[in-house]
Amino acid sequence: RIVNDIEHTYVPGAMSPVHFVSETHNEARRCAREHEATQEAIRLLDEAVMMGRVSSLAIVEETGGLDSDSMTNYEYQIAMQLLATCDGDICNMLFRPQEDDPKLNGPDWSVKFRDDSLETVTERALEGAKLWRHGELPNDEEEYYQMFSFAAWQAASYIAEPRQIELALMMTNTLDRLSAARQVLKSHRYRLESMLAILDKYVPLDEEEELENEQLST
What we know:
The termini are far apart. The chain has helices at residues 2-5, 17-50, 53-62, 73-86, 118-128, 141-156, 162-170, 174-202, 207-217. α2 (17-50) runs parallel beside α6 and α6 (141-156) packs across α8. The protein has 218 residues and is an all-alpha fold.
C-alpha cells in the first residue's frame, strides 16, 4: 500500500492518508493530461510531415529564412531538432518501428505510447499482476496509483536521463514518483508544441489547408 511504502518520507499529521490519496489521484491526472497533449502534438507533427511542411521548413532554412538573430536560442535549437528528426525530406526521415507495430510508421518523436492512454497501460499492468496474485486483481486505489506511477515513467523513459530514471525507481513515495514523471512529460510536451509553433510561424497553413486539416481530425 502507498502509505506503508513511504515510511521514510510520509510524516503522520502533515497530510492525512485520505488527503494523500486525493493528491496522488490529482497528480496522476496531470500526468495523463501531459501524455494526452503529447499524443495530440505528435498527431499534428505527423500531419505536418505528410503535408510537406517540414520539407518546406528545410527550404526556408537553406535559403536563410530561419534567422537565428531574430529567434531565441531555444527556438533555433527546436527548429534544428525538428529538421534533424525528419531530415528535412519525407523520403529520408528517421524511422523507428513501434513495439506493438513492426511497420515503419513515422519519424521518431521519442514517445513510448503513441496511442495508448496511461490508464490503459496501467490496466494492462494490473492484469499482468494476476500472474503473481493467483488470478486476483488488486482492488485498492493506492496500489492502482502506484502502478500508474510506473506507467508514467514508462512513458517518460524515452526522454528521461538515465539518472532521472534511476532516482525514480529508488523513490518510495508514489506521489513524488508521479510528480517527477510529470516534469519529464511536461518538458517533452512543451518541446513538441514548440516545434509546432515554429512550423506555424515559418510554414503557416492557409485557410483551405486548415479547414481540410480540421475535417481529417474529426
